[in-house]
Structures are given as C-alpha cells and as structure tokens.
Hints:
Layout: H1 12-39, H2 45-66, H3 79-102, H4 105-112, H5 114-126, H6 133-154, H7 161-185, H8 191-208, H9 219-245, H10 248-251, H11 257-268, H12 276-294
Helix pairs in contact: 1-9, 1-11, 2-3, 2-8, 2-9, 3-7, 3-8, 4-7, 4-11, 5-6, 5-7, 6-12
Amino acid sequence: MHSAHTAPTSPPTSRLTGIGLRLLSTFLMASMLAVIHRVGHEVSLGQLIFWRSFMALLPILAYMTLRGQFPSALKTKHPKAHVIRSLFGALSMALSFLSLIYLSVSQAQALAYLAPTLSLPVAAIVLRERLTPLIIFATALGFAGTLMMLWAALSLPGSAAWVGVAAGLGYAVTMSFVRIHIKTMTKTEKPATISFYFAITCTLVGLASLPFGWTEVSSTTLGLLCFAGLLGGCGHIASSEAVSRAPVSVLAPFDYTGLIWGLLFDVLIFGVIFTPLTLIGAGAIVAAALLVTFGKTAPASQVPSQTPIKSNGS
C-alpha cells in the first residue's frame, strides 16, 4: 500500500537518536501506567482521565511552540475525523485505566500489546490487506502469550481480575480501530494536531464526570495524577521526535521494551512475584509482536484505482 518509491534512508546517527527517543518514550509511558496503577484505587475513573489529559496539554503545547507549529497546527479541515479519533481514544483510555486498577502493570500491558495484532484483521477488512500464514501464526502466539501472563490472576477463585481482563481486551479492540483511523489522518494532519485535540477531548470527557462525584484527594495523590499527565505528554513528544528521525519499521521492535519496564515496576515497586509461565508468556508476546513487525501483510489483489482510504498508530 506504500508507494513504489523508496523513502530516503535516514543517517545512522539519526536512526540511533530515533531509537533512543523511542526507548525513552516507552519508559515514560510505562512509568505513567505505573503511576495510574498506584493511584487508581484512590480516585474515580473520570479524575484519572481528566488529570492525565489536562496535564499532558502542557508539554504538548510547549512542544508545538518550540517547533513553530503554534497556533498554526491547531487549524484543521477535518474536525469530524478528530472527533471520531478522540472519542474512540477516550474510550480506549478509560478501558486501559480500568484494566490497570484490577491487573498488574505488566498484565495490563500484555493485553494492550494485543492492539497491533488485533489491528491486522481490521486492516484486512478496511485496507483490503491479505493476512499471510506467518501473521496468522503471530496472532495466535500473541493470544497464547497473553493467556499465559494472565493465568495466575484468572485462576484465583472469585478473582476481580476478570474485570481488568475484559477492560484490557476492550482497550485492545478499540485501539485496533484507532490505529487504523490515525493512519488515515496522518495523510493530512500533523501528529501534534492529532495529539492536541485528543488531549482536549479527553480533558472534557474527564471533566464531564465531575457531577457524578470526584474523590477528595491528598496533595500526594494530586501530585501523582499531575505527574502521570506530564509523563504521558512527554512520552507522546518523544515518540513523535523518534518517528521524525528513523523509519517506523526500525523503531517498532523497541515499542515492546515497555513490557520489560512493566515487569520491573511490578517487581521493584509493587512487590509482584511472577511465575515462570508469566515470563514465558511475556516472551511469546514480544516474539509475536516482532513477527507482526517483520512479517507484513501481503498486498491485496489488485483492485480498480479507486481503492478505499488507507489508514493508521503508539
């Protein structure tokens, strides 16, 4: 679905910088998830969404200003596309945070990493791509790895982990649609524009929950909520800068270092003890993700020039 022309090759130094920024991005986002997991039982879901999104606006606006894109990047000719992306993104965020309340950081991440795998059947339908046997195998391997990581939690009698699993799966499904939708938007919209309107929409969604009751929080909890938002905003910026310096295909494998950070946070901060099956499952998820990255879908059989809108996202 890409043009026949080869994109210019980025210099080795630029690629290394891009990889470093992507590694920084995954660390920042994993750190944000750990903070959300820490405060998730103390505040309402609406509060989590509000503070995560509102505080993320600060680094996003600063980034746009430094790039000389403010306020020009706020202009868009496709407001409907932003509304659809932002509302689906807000739903995805809510489901992600809900899974973090009931599961460990790494378990919630394991479900989140199903998103790129689940986006494949969506791409097959929307983008008319044909799935190869390797991709189908990778999809099955990813699901098997997720089941292994979640087995200990799900085997507990009367475990509330099922709520987290359902929310995590919901997140993966909605994010698979968001990824496809963003691919369409990036053909006409700047990444900063997409991030800004997403943060604004989620801030308003979180604020709309105020009449339903927000929990009074301590200064420590409020500080952690603000910190989570700043981490998320900076993570998005680092990801955008990484993409501007290195091809997505070079960066993609490093996305899954987030699962390593999640495992480390669970052990070092939250005192979680993992079984060998959990670690095997984590390895299976990473292997599946790498297969998805390098075993691309085959192009669909040729259709008339009026192909459907191609679409895509972190």
